[in-house]
Structure formats: C-alpha cells, structure tokens
Amino acid sequence: MGGRGKEIYMVKNEAPALEIFERYDRVFQPIYGSDAKFDSQGGIYIPRWRSVPPGRADPSKYKIISPKSVLSDEARMWKGLETMKPVCLEIVQITEDSGSVEAAIRYTDHILTGTRGKEREQAEAVRARTQFLIDYFQEWEPGRISESDRKGLQEETVRQLLAVGLDSETVTLEEKQKMGQWLIKASKAEDSTGRINQLITMQLLFAVQRRVLEREIAVGGFTVPKYLQISEALVFARSFDRKMMTEAERALMNLLSTVHFRRPETQTEENFGVTRGKMRSVAWMFSQIKLSPYRPAAKVIGERLNQLVGLMEQRNIEGAYEIGLVDWVESDRAAMEQILTDPRYKEVFYKG
After folding, report:
1. Among 106, 139, 203, 249, which residue's CB has the most CB atoms within a 10 Å radius?
2. SS3 sequence of 321-343
3. Are 74 and 140 part of one and the same domain?
4. For the whole model, what pTM was predicted?
C-alpha cells in the first residue's frame, strides 16, 4: 500500500492484527478494484485509517508497513516521525448479520456519514471562530482589551470547540490538536511568555485558517473518495450476487425437473449430455457469487452439483438418489431461496 504525502503507515504489533493484515495484503481478493476485500468464504474486510500521535508511535506497539526502508522500525520511529504523520491501518472484518454485504454497506455508509458530517461541522466551527477573532482583533487592539474580556474570549473558544467534539487535549489527530491549541492560545492574544502580542496572535489565527483548509482537502481528497469507491463496489457486488443467485436458483429448479431426475430409468445418451452440460453451467454460475451471505450457500450447492456431474459421467444417476445427493441439492435450493427473501438482507443504499 502506498503512502500519501509524508504519512507513514503502520499496523498494531499484535498477532491478530498482523495476521489479518498479512491475509488482507496477500490472500484476500479485492472487491471490484476497491480497498475492500473478501476471503474464500465470502467474508468481507474493510480498511480503516486512524492517525496516531507521534508520541504514541512506539515500535513495540506498531509495525511499519509503508513506505519501505532499509532502516529498522525502531530507527525510523525515533528518527522520522518528527516529519512524518503516523497512520495506523486497521482491517475490520464485517461480522454483523453473518458478515453480510448489506452490513458492510451500512458500515461504509456510517463511516462516510460520520466523516462528512463531523468533519464539516468541526471545520465550519473552527473557520467561523477564527474569522471572528481575526475581525475582532483587527477592530480592537488586544492591548486595549481587559484581561477578563480576553479570558472570556478564550473560554468561549473552548466552549465552541468542545461543542463540536474538538478537545485539543484528547483528540488524536495531530492537525486537530494544533488547530485547537493555536485557536485557544490566540483567543487570549498572548504569546508564550504571557505578554499581549498582536503579531503572534494574528499569525496563529492565519495558521489555523490554513490548517482548516488543508484538513478539508485531505478528507475530501482521500478519505471520502476511498470509502465512496468501497461503497459503490459493495453495492455492485451485492446486486451481482443476488442476480446471479436468482438466475442460478431458477436454472437449478428447472434442472431438477428434467426427466433424468424425475424418471432416471428413461435416461438416454443424448439427454445425459444435455443435462450434464446444464449442470456444469449452473455450477459455474454459483461459483461466480463472491460475498456473504450468498457465497457460503452457493459454494455448497456448487460442490454438490459437481458431485452430480461426476455420477452422471459414470451413468449412475441412481447413485445420487441412493446417497441422498439430489435431496440435498433440493434442500440447498430451498435454503437459498430463504436467503434471498430474508429481511436482514434487504436492499441498502449509501445515503451520505
């Protein structure tokens, strides 16, 4: 995975996190070109990128995955994190509703809605407060404002930031930490020595304005497009899987009503070839279904159809009845129909 800007990507240095990242990176298959991936059973995995304060980037807790370097993780964390932004990559396995693609769509929707709504609200609050202070200190020279009034300005800034979830002491994103700290400091119009300093105050306020813009560009240019792509891929995959399962289930129902299954004693060589070809075609249709909850059922029925093909090639359709294989296929088909009508898997769309 490539880095963006000066960011450095890490995963938690814990066995479960390292194991799932290794499988995500090397084994799982991407869902229609997105960063979401699926495993052999249709399980869905979605990445989350979380900023880590430089002080918490402990090499005993994190393992660097990108960009590559000849230096050890310890050396890079000691040397490079002053100029690079550490980002922890977490691979989230969808487990709600049996790990369904519908649950994955809702999860992605939640990320997009939360990111857009929260980021927009915070950016607007910081921008409005910053502009107010710029205008205020341009109209009123800080030295002519009483200390109690300047304290009041600072307290109001803290209140407005907390109202949108921006606590500079607890927020983990470095950009937000700095924006909050600078804005609070500038609200009292003092420098680091505690003296009134209009020049430093205005520099801090203009720096906050730049940071807000940079944050909006980062969110709009990376986070939102990434999850929009994932959401679109999941919606398409769901539509494809359901359509393929519906068509395969219908084809299977027709197949089970053919003369070979209703009256195996009437089988002919010509019918054998036609039925066997249809069976292989239906098995292939089931093999194209990718995601949970559709893939596990499709995989089972596809394997049983291939067993049936093997028995047919041996001219032993009676054997399929003897071991109950035909009954199993019919039962699997009914179970598949139940999945398609299950209210948990109703259609969902991204609403952000």
Report:
1. 249
2. HHCCHHHHHHHHHHHHHHHHHCH
3. no
4. 0.73
Quickly state the pLDDT bin for 322 (edges 50, 70, 90).
low
Task: Report yes or no on 265 lying in a domain.
Answer: yes
pLDDT at 222 over 50: yes
CB within 8 A of 255, min separation 6: which ones?
261, 275, 278, 279, 282
345 in Cβ contact with 106 (< 8 Å) = no
Task: Tell which residue, 204, 42, 60, 65, has the closest CA to residue 137.
Answer: 204
Q: Which residues pair with 49 in a beta bridge?
A: 89
Q: Decide if pLDDT at 80 tops 70.
A: no
When pLDDT is averaged across residues 155-172 and rounded to a whole number, the result is: 87
Query: CA–CA separation, 220 vs 213, rounded Å?
Result: 10
Do 87 and 8 touch, CB atoms closer than 8 A?
A: yes
Q: Is residue 55 part of a domain?
A: yes
Same domain, 72 and 127: no
48-51, Cβ contacts within 8 angstroms, sequence gap of 24 or more: 48/89, 48/90, 48/91, 48/92, 48/111, 49/9, 49/87, 49/88, 49/89, 49/90, 49/223, 50/87, 50/88, 50/90, 50/172, 51/85, 51/86, 51/87, 51/88, 51/172, 51/173, 51/174
pLDDT for 1 equals: 44
Nearest to 38 by CA among 46, 29, 51: 29
Q: pLDDT tens digits for 92-133?
A: 999 999 999 999 999 998 888 877 777 788 888 998 999 999
- The number of domains in the chain is 3
Residue 144: DSSP 8-state: G
Residue 276: give the domain boundaries: 257-343
3-state secondary structure (DSSP) of residue 58: coil
Reduced 3-state DSSP string for 203-249: HHHHHHHHHHHHHHHHHHHHHHHHHHHHHHHHHHHHHHHHHHHHHHH
For β-strands 85-93 and 44-51, DSSP reports them as antiparallel
Whether residue 2 has pLDDT greater than 50:
no
Q: How many CB atoms lie within 10 A of CB 32?
A: 15
Half-sphere exposure of 58 (CA within 13 A, CB side): 5
